[in-house]
Amino acid sequence: MSTQREVEHVRGLRAVVSVGGGTLRWRRQRRWLIGTGGVSCCCWTLKAFLSALQNFGRNSRSSNCGFVSDKPLCDVIFDSLVEAKAANAAKSFLSYVDFTPQPAFLERYIRCLCESCDSGSIEEALDVFDQLKNIGFLPALETWNLALLGSVRTGKTDVVWKLYGEMMDNGVVGDVDTVGYLIQAFCIDGNVSKGYELFRQVLEDGFVPSFVAFNKLISGFCKDGKYWRVSALLHTMIAKNGRPGIFTYQEIISSFFKRGIPSEGFRIFNDLKDRGYAPDRVMYTTMIHGLFEKKLFGDARKLWFEMVRKGIIPNEYTYNALIWGLFKVGYIKKAKGLYKEMCCRGYKETTVSYNTMISGLCLHRRTAQACELFQEMAEKGIACDIITYNSLIQGYAKEGR
Known about the structure:
This protein is mainly alpha-helical. Among the domains are: 1-99, no CATH class; 102-174, no CATH class; 348-401, no CATH class. It contains 20 helices and four strands. Strands 3-1-2-4 form a four-stranded mixed beta sheet. A hairpin with a 4-residue loop joins β1 (15-18) and β2 (23-26).
């Protein structure tokens, strides 16, 4: 007696899988079953459908029964999975059923894989590109661009250059999006100057790359300390009717602090507010931490109160930045009080928060109190890391123990 399972199909199609009988057929908007003594499914969820296919694979291997696929049905199923963004299910379907989808469906499959943005899917997309190449089918530019974007997002620049080389070999002319992905790939590879050269070329041709490409270049030049390039990029961004986002400025400010130029970072932060930008909690945290690191305690505390006054609730990272700053300036009691306030506000005690307290206490030769916190971490099941141990070791060393 056959077992039936009915669920809603992603495209509203009525379909049937007859596992035991070895045939796969379909009908639209009708319910019917092939009663062949096997397992039949009338409409399915992805999980139930793939489970049926797995059962078929086991049954066919053990009984040596043949499996005849109905290509129209296979195409519908495969395209439905792709349309539902179920890349893994589509891949499994291809491995269980011996059929080759139409080229247009395979192209959509490439897009589905690239949108998932993981390394395995990008590699699978490359294989499908090769499959289409072997049958003489050339994907559209949008598909190439999605593959480039997915490769950039996963940091696989080798795939970017391989894909771009194939585009050139096949006579596919890129657009401004293509160039933007190449610029990002240059920056990821650490070749920011080459990316900037390409950026200037596309500007001369009258096109403007995306903000993501701008930000990649800005980030790259900030790391290299080439601030004149950063300034030029910001001016270009504004001239092309683009308003640099808060993330762009945060990258620049953070870079100035890392490079030991806090006054310039503080100047840009204040300039931002004058221009009508509303710094968010992340930017305030970055500023507070940077100012404390450079021993500008007064400015850091002013920003803390300014943030609270504007209704921006500090998070655990903001609290930890200020707590560490208070320890550095010697305000141990205030640091402890702020830590207690953080816990009372519902923030969970974490490895980071404990490390902040342990490091601060060890800084002032209060190793016994730090050890109490260390033991407390074990009791609460909070993991220690290398920073925890190093802080304690340094604390004992200061005390000559």
